[in-house]
Specification:
188 residues; alpha/beta; Rossmann fold; six-stranded mixed β-sheet; 7 helices; 8 strands; globular
């Protein structure tokens, strides 16, 4: 990863996404730090940084992926940024999304987008705490016949989720760690 671009991403996450207070996380845990990654991932600057950095991280990890995606909605902009960044590469990566519940109408799909059985998949997490969202996405991808090559997180909250997934045999790469973001927050 180009360090100056990564520094820009850390600065964006610290100024736009990180907040101090009392919060209940998706995992149910209480925290004094909340990282609303969407404030970064859904901005033009964030997408422009995340796509190439995430694509480089996938390549650096040695994951030859056909598709990238995860649980909606946190993973969606990251997967699309990776797909867009890969468009002119020798091996473009398709984006998909995993619904929280199967669609109640039409085809009743749990996974939307161009994911095929046999695809090598990078599961995307915006912020990994316990790894629960990644696990749901991993289960859905495997049920659809995909082969999970690893999990790419935008932010590792450093609360055991990464280690839990790795203990299950799933490689995890994070673009940023909570400690790095906290170190860049104003007033810290």
């Amino acid at each position: 990863m180009a360090n100056f671009h990564r520094d820009d991403l850390l600065d964006l996450l610290a100024t736009r996404s990180a907040r101090r207070g009392t919060f209940t996380l998706a995992s149910g845990r209480q925290s004094s730090l909340y990282i609303d990654a969407r404030m970064t991932t859904m901005s033009p600057e964030g997408l422009a940084l995340i796509g190439p950095l995430a694509l480089a991280a996938v390549h650096d990890a040695g994951w030859r992926a056909d598709a990238a995606g995860g649980l909606t909605m946190g993973a969606d902009p990251i997967a699309c940024a990776i797909s867009y960044a890969s468009a002119t590469s020798r091996h473009p990566i398709r984006a998909f999304t995993v619904r929280k519940e199967p669609k109640a109408h039409g085809t009743g799909k749990l996974i939307e987008g161009p994911l095929s059985a046999g695809d090598r998949v990078v599961v995307i997490e915006d912020t990994i705490t316990t790894g629960g969202s990644a696990r749901k996405a991993i289960d859905a991808v495997r049920a659809a016949g995909g082969v999970v090559v690893g999990v790419l997180a935008l932010v590792d909250r450093e609360e055991g989720g990464r280690e839990s997934l790795e203990a299950d045999g799933v490689a995890v790469v994070a673009l940023a760690r909570a400690a790095e973001i906290v170190a860049r927050m104003a007033g810290d």
